[in-house]
Design goal:
The structure is a homodimer. Chain A is of the alpha/beta class. Chain A contains eight helices and nine strands. The longest helix of chain A is centred in the C-terminal third of the chain and has 21 residues, at about 195-215.
Chain lengths: ~220, ~220
């Protein structure tokens, strides 16, 4: 597969959305889709779709649209879904448990190996089949297993320290739910943060815009 | 405050990040910051910062940088934080409870009024002081209170139906954690979705890129 070397962050951020959309189309039994129909379902123009996918090589055929199955598979490849990545969860509080019990790691190509917490009531138990170890076991576990990603749902006060420990232990990425902007000592470690407040404030902005329009009309 | 009418989604998405960054600077006691220093802390260039903020009027003074307090306040105004928005939570499972108990709604300008669930063990109780009602009470509650936003953490099978009920009942926005792409009948209702899988797949992509570089080097 030919790929252009420089792909913008905006395009990269849209790839998972394409993957999600194509998965839904596949489940609905759709075999082919035009760039305009795919765009419409995602709030994008046909030309944006063509440009985005062109960054990663030649998909689809002029006038025939895209084959849903193979486009989904190709995008999955680009996203690394078939690479067999592994993950551990740090922090098995409400949020950690919600994610362990409900998030479909395997659909995203991840194997959830273990969870870590300091709560004696949880250590030694299993959550959705996943063993919970004491946080003091973290380095030993990582040394003995191939761990690609550490998911952080620890309290904000412990966020940086746990991020540092994951980095020192050699993970490739940190999936950060702590709402703390983790400073990573190693530039090779990728930090991806889910900031709930950024999302709510975007919603707040959109609502406020509509309110202002109504007030001024 | 002068505002350009057409602001790109990318700029809007960065506003909450500015607000978060400025809050942290304020807590650290920083009074002034240059566009280059602010940019560096956010992974943006000084010129991007100036362009972004210019969309919303004139902030800062050439050569003096930005006053942290007043820039934070201005951005907060733009985001609608002082508008006194209200919110209810639909679904008080692990994820709903994690958000109710840990998310700082008031820091984001939201007042959390109530939660709704069908679980008899939860109905009638309080979570972090927030009353939990049966989902059958939803319409009556919204009719009696001013509810701006409904937060959805219901199971995916109930997502569209609950989205429809919120829309019919007259909310202005839906904060959607169901991982289901809700189709909204009313174009005036804003749907903002938090898709965990989009975030994890972006991380997967970044890691896979590094792995490929190592394999090819």
């Amino acid at each position: 597969m030919k790929r252009n070397t420089k792909v913008s962050t905006a395009v990269i951020r849209r790839l998972p959305r394409y993957y999600r959309q194509l998965s839904e189309l596949q489940e609905a039994g759709t075999e082919r889709i035009s760039s305009s129909a795919l765009g419409k379902s995602m709030g994008l123009t046909a030309s944006q779709i063509r440009q985005d996918l062109f960054c990663f090589g030649e998909f689809g055929q002029q006038g025939y649209g895209y084959k849903v199955d193979s486009l989904k598979e190709e995008i999955g490849e680009i996203l690394g879904i078939s690479r067999g990545h592994t993950l551990i969860v740090l922090g098995a509080g409400n949020l950690g448990r919600a994610i362990i019990q409900n998030f479909r790691f395997s659909s995203n190509g991840f194997d959830l190996l273990a969870a870590f917490d300091v709560n004696p009531a949880l250590v030694g138990s299993r959550l959705a089949g996943v063993p919970v170890y004491h946080t003091s076991e973290l380095e030993r576990f990582i040394a003995g297993h191939s761990v690609d990603v550490g998911l952080l749902t620890v309290p904000i006060a412990a966020a940086q320290e746990m991020g540092d420990r994951l980095t020192s232990a050699g993970v490739k990425g940190i999936w950060n739910f702590t709402n703390y902007e983790i400073a990573c000592a190693d530039p090779e470690v990728v930090v991806e943060s889910v900031h709930f407040s950024d999302s709510l404030l975007t919603l707040s902005y959109m609502i406020s815009q509509r309110e202002e329009q109504e007030e001024n009309s």
